[in-house]
Amino acid sequence: MTNASRKFMLILLAAAPALAFAQAAKQPTPPPQPAARPKVYTPVATPSQRWQRQADQQQLINRQNQNAVQEQLRQNNLNQQRNNATDPAMRQQLDNANSQQQQQYRARQDNAARQYQDKQTTQPANATSRPH
């Protein structure tokens, strides 16, 4: 081994711990920033659309209340007829009719709600929008 190669090896041995220490002392790199979120535009209802939606909701409530009043009157009438009936066969017929009419009442209520939902989903998209 020559003198020059010894010096080179000594420098290399002396520099190796310093390089290892420098790498360990290096600040960790921060995590990459997430990509910018795309702007999402949400439709904004115009005042006339909000008014129409409220009017539709009120119509649904009115229709359901009207159905409930009719059902209550029908139920009271049926109860009176049943209380006055002495024949068991007549009571059975009244019970069967009551069951059928209750199903029709529920169907009317469900239909009114479904029509309201369909009306809300089939309305055209709003022309105005705002960034979200």
What series of H and E elements makes up the topology?
HEHHE
Largest sheet: 2 strands, antiparallel
SS-derived structural category? mainly alpha
- Name the poorly predicted regions: none
What is the topological layout?
Layout: H1 3-25, E1 41-43, H2 47-84, H3 88-122, E2 129-131
Helix pairs in contact: 2-3
Summarize this structure briefly:
By secondary structure, this protein is mainly α. The protein contains 3 helices and 2 strands.
Task: Characterise this structure.
This protein is mainly alpha-helical and 132 residues long. The chain contains 3 helices and 2 strands. Helix 2 runs antiparallel to helix 3 (88-122). The longest helix is centred in the middle third of the chain and has 38 residues, at 47-84. It is rod-shaped and about 130 Å long.
Keywords:
132 residues; mainly alpha; 3 helices; rod-shaped
